[in-house]
């Protein structure tokens, strides 16, 4: 009975499930370190953008929330995510982005129920209902068309 209760608690609280690390990489622009990205997935393997997944970014510089949102918008334009539903998702998530400083950790979790959770330094900041926007956000780092293919390859543990 204790095992069933523990399993029930873990399933009811997806953040209690710890996923193994798939890969990590640091984003550098010119000679500035921007963040270190880490991807976590079941069995430590990435095959596609499918729940559950966690992308964690540890920042190495100060960035305003408005800059994070604008960078997201820029990447979505690059990836051609410009339909009304995608743009509405961006408007909804705008309040979730905090100002970040060196050492801050921002995590985006795609839960088994396809909801998304945004955590800032380990505290839940936002919950988002199931939406294609949740997967599109992860596509910035995980799609074959990402702006930083070497970072993507390291995150998904293919190549270097």
Structure description:
This protein has helices at residues 2-12, 65-78, 84-93, 132-142, 149-155, and strands at residues 21-29, 32-40, 53-59, 105-110, 116-120, 123-128. The chain is globular. Helix 3 (84-93) crosses helix 4. The chain is built from five helices and six strands. 33% of the residues lie in helices and 26% in strands. With 160 residues, it is α+β, with helices and mostly antiparallel strands. It has a single domain (19-155), classed as Chalcone isomerase, CATH 3.50.70. The chain has a six-stranded antiparallel β-sheet. 26% of the residues are buried. The chain starts with a helix and ends in a 5-residue tail after the last helix. Mean pLDDT is 89; it is low at 1-16.
**What fold name stands as the CATH topology?**
Chalcone isomerase
- Spatial arrangement of strands, main beta sheet: 1-2-3-4-5-6
What's the CATH first level?
Alpha Beta
Give the termini distance in whole angstroms: 45 Å
**Given the C-alpha coordinates, what overall shape results?**
globular
Unreliable spans: 1-16
Strand residues, percent: 25-35%
Question: How many strands, which pairing sense, and closed or not: the largest β-sheet?
Answer: 6 strands, antiparallel
Percent helix range:
25-40%
How many domains?
1
Task: Report the total helices.
Answer: 5
SS-based class:
alpha+beta
Oligomer: single chain
CATH architecture type: 3-Layer(bba) Sandwich
Tally of strands:
6
Query: What is the H/E order?
Result: HEEEHHEEEHH
How much is the radius of gyration in Å? 16 Å
């Amino acid at each position: 009975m204790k095992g069933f209760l523990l399993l029930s608690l873990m399933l009811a609280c997806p953040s209690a499930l710890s996923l193994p690390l798939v890969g990590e990489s640091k984003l550098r622009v010119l000679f500035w370190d921007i963040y270190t990205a880490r991807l976590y997935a079941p069995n430590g393997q990435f095959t596609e953008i499918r729940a559950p997944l966690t992308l964690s970014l540890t920042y190495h510089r100060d960035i305003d929330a408005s800059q994070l949102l604008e960078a997201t918008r820029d990447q979505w334009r690059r990836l051609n995510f410009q339909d009304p539903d995608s743009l509405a998702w961006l408007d909804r998530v705008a309040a979730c982005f905090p100002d970040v400083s060196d050492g801050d950790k921002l995590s985006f979790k795609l839960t088994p129920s396809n909801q998304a959770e945004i955590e800032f330094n380990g505290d839940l900041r936002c919950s988002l209902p199931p939406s294609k926007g949740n997967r599109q956000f992860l596509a910035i780092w995980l799609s074959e068309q990402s702006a930083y293919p070497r970072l993507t390859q390291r995150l998904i543990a293919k190549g270097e």
